[in-house]
Amino acid sequence: MRTCLLLPLLTLAAPALGDCRLALALAADVSRSIDAADFVIQTEGLAAALEDAEVRAAIFEPDGTVALAVYQWSGPAHQELIQPWVVLDGPDKLDAAIWAIRRAQRPEQRQATALGEALRYGADLLAQAPPCARQVLDVAGDGRNNEGVSVATIYARDPFDGITVNALAIGEHELNLTRYFRDEVIRGPGAFVELAPRQIDYPQAIRRKLLRELEGPQIGLGPAPQFEGGKT
What we know:
With 232 residues, the protein is α/β, with parallel strands linked by helices. The protein has one domain (17-148, 172-215): Rossmann fold, CATH 3.40.50. The protein is 39% helix and 21% strand. It has a 6-stranded mixed beta sheet with strand order 3-2-1-4-5-6, sandwiched between helices. Helix 2 (36-51) runs antiparallel to helix 4 (91-103), helix 2 runs parallel beside helix 8 (202-215) and helix 3 packs parallel to helix 8 (202-215). The longest helix is centred in the N-terminal third of the chain and has 16 residues, at 36-51. It is globular, with a radius of gyration of 18 Å. It starts with a helix and ends in a 17-residue tail after the last helix.
């Protein structure tokens, strides 16, 4: 009798053909440590990753669609949505999102690293996402929170129920950044930290990260390697 009751629940838990399987919000660091060259590397790296044949194949899997939004973040008052939520139900939608990313401008005002505020903005953004089986906030950054509300305070105020927060640590500027993201930032089932030891490693790192997020939670994988160097 118990088995009969559980079967419909299990069926409902899996996305049906054509349903949204993933709402993915990408958060790009544009704080003062990101210079003009870094911005080009990251912007073009993300666009190229979304153009990659393997990434596109993962997006357009037949078991459900992907919804995408992209925003920039830096200081407490600067979060800019550069791609509102779009359901990637065809190549034209993805190509338009890639064009929006490439069109994005680096902010003129150089601001601090308000990671807590970036997380809060991401949670609010995901609250407006299309209904999807999973919600993932993908935060890339090259430094710890140094202005505004702390990451710990944000998580104390909002448990981020149903949201997985993953991080991409760009380890060129600060020591032990991967550990910081692992211990204080990532959250939820299967959450992980991807590492780009230097800015020039970002394009491959974001590609790996997107593939892993599109594949779904991979519980039990080991943590990313620690990077102990700093920028000289």
